[in-house]
Amino acid sequence: AVTVYVTVVITTQLANRVGKEAGSVMFSCDASGIPAPQFYWTHNTNNITSGGDQVISTDGKTLTVSKLVYDYRGMYTCFASNVVNTVSTTGSLTVNVPPREPVTVPTNGTQDIDLGMSAIFSCTFAASRPVTVTWD
Would you say the pTM of this structure is higher than 0.85? Predict the structure, then answer.
């Protein structure tokens, strides 16, 4: 008997997705090959295990990400693999977060400086779109 193997080829590429906070998005990919490929997924190079907010379909071709939060943004990759080779397709997820009420950051104390000296104030934050920072 002769066994024929065919390399895996992606037939459906991942599309980039945009979701809103608390919403959900679905990524789908497909591939052909002999033997039929197995599928697995990564988020920013970390393997995804189906469960919780990230559910992989039983055939492995669809990933649903729900209850979106800002940390779910990034690159999602679908890998298709058989005994011949492994191929992949990548799509991005952008999570839009609505504006929040202004936040007052407490000071860590006071610092006296002499007249004419410089003072440096800093603020660190993450945002999915441009924001305005004001100092009072």
Answer: no
